[in-house]
Amino acid sequence: MLRAPWQLHVYRNRHGRGSRTPMFGVRMPRYRTKSGMFDDMVASQLRRLHGAWPQLVQPVQFAVEDVPPSDPAPWQADPDLCSQCFPAGRGTPARIVLYRMPIQMHARTRMDLQFAIRDELVSRLAELYGRRPEEIDPDWGLD
Predict the structure, then answer these.
(1) How many CA atoms lie within 13 A of 121 on its CB side?
(2) Strands 61-65 and 95-99, bridge-based pairing
(3) DSSP 3-state percent helix, strand, coil across the chain (nearest 5)
């Protein structure tokens, strides 16, 4: 049976030197990067918090950055290197920013990383709303 060229399976790239498909499947653990796994952990913690406190989590914007800015604000005596929160201003919603590299450096295992992300998110939400972290998440600070 003769097939058209665009219906053939092509396993080489355009110049015939390398593989066109990935070496491993996209669902394999090797395909996922550390930053992608960190983002997934943050998203799962946000889903969990949103399920418990939708009125607190919904108006806040969340972001993940690799490292904190090198020049802290003049009013910050000792800046926190793991996360930062910015209260709402004129026309801008409140924001919480997590810094991936410092949090990953302190964590030794994936469970430590998940607990660190949870603690940072809960403490920053508590700081934004003037509550104690234990009110938002009773497991805060427990590992």
Answers:
(1) 29
(2) parallel
(3) 40, 10, 45
Instruction: Kindly give the pairing relationship between strand 61-65 and strand 83-86.
Output: unpaired
Domains of the chain, residue spans: 33-70+78-136
pLDDT per position as a tens digit, 13-57: 666 666 656 566 656 665 567 888 899 999 999 999 999 889 989
Spatial separation of the C-alpha atoms in residues 56 and 79, rounded to whole Å:
24
Write down how long the chain is: 143
Write out the two tokens for 105.
């450096």
- pLDDT tens-place string over residues 43-94: 999 999 999 889 989 999 999 999 887 776 666 666 668 898 888 888 899 9
Residue 76 Cα distances to 65, 109, 130, angstroms? 19, 31, 18
Alpha carbon distance 36, 112 (integer Å): 17
Report CA-CA distances (Å) from 86 to 62, 83, 100. 10, 10, 17
Please give the DSSP secondary-structure letter assigned to residue 95.
E
| Contact (CB, 8 A) for 72 and 109 | no
What's the pTM?
0.74
Q: Please give the class, per CATH, of domain 33-70+78-136.
A: alpha beta
